[in-house]
Amino acid sequence: MAQITLDNLAHSYLANPSDEGDYALKELNHTWRDGEAYALLGPSGCGKSTLLNIISGLLIPSHGRVLFGDTDVTRLPTAERNIAQVFQFPVVYDTMTVRENLAFPLKNRGMDGAEIARRVGRVAKMIDVEAVLDRKARGLTADAKQKISLGRGMVREDVNALLFDEPLTVIDPHMKWELRTQLKKLHADFGHTMIYVTHDQTEALTFADKVVVMFDGRVVQIGTPEELFQTPEHTFVGYFIGSPGMNVLPARIEGRTAHLDAGSVPLGAGYGALSGKVEIGVRPEFVSLSSTEGLPVEIVRVEDVGRHKIIRAKLSGKALNIIADEGTEIGADMTRVTFDPDHVNVYADDWRVAPSGAHATGEAA
């Protein structure tokens, strides 16, 4: 297991990049703690697979270094980094049995047969392939083959890191939940450093100790699920995390008041003078309908999703989402909204601004 340090790291697929826009991975400096589980979360093309491939040794960065502990591994081949990597699509040996596939990385290291049998048995039970251990992998379904790929990564207990590149894409929804649970148990039992790439926020938030949110080749926030929800450090984080995502509205800030086109709303803290594109962000969970106070809104429709209701509204012509409890009655006279002041974040040029005298709670790039 190893602490992973990304030092001045950046990468361009162009031979002679001339500006920041030419970089698929923009410069970043981070230290990821030994033994923690991280998820790289973001949309397609944001740079998460590029970063994972640099960590694994499949790609040498344009500049900067990768360190495992105190060892510079930037130019070491994958085989010398002592990692296990599971890819999006299953990689198995069709002519081998499931048992032989799971044992393969251990046999390559000359491990004792009894220990191999113990580890293979434990992992086979974990991924629910005990019944097919002696079947050839060739005839198995895609999701069964991916379970074997996962098992081969999990069978090794001495690796510096376990890397997963969207490993549950071909797995059925019920099995996804089961395998995420098992991966978390593996992490709890053995304390491997784990890095899990996904574009699915549910996978990221349920798997990881810390979620690394990426946007346009940049790490915009590293935080716990609670930090990403409560204090998104970038408007993209607010938009990408949550369903629906955070409401973002243009505003002018004066001290403890935000002035919007529709009127003014109180803030839970004071702010100094701001320049650039200034906005407030408030999650739908912290917006409330009222018949007597707040800003005037137009209700477009109400969606009952079982656990709660999503009210789609417009505030000065701009979309506004509101979440209400399942049993809440939406009366015809409820045409105003209020925001919980303590849960309104302020942004300048898309980055969260800390209140006067306070510090941002998240870890931004």
From TrEMBL:
Keywords: ATP-binding, Cell membrane, Membrane, Nucleotide-binding, Transport. It comes from the Bacteria. GO terms for molecular function: ATP binding. Belongs to the ABC transporter superfamily. Pfam families: ABC_tran, OB_MalK. This is ABC transporter ATP-binding protein. Residues 4-241 form the ABC transporter domain. Gene3D superfamilies: 2.40.50.100, Nucleic acid-binding proteins, P-loop containing nucleotide triphosphate hydrolases. It comes from Litorisediminicola beolgyonensis.
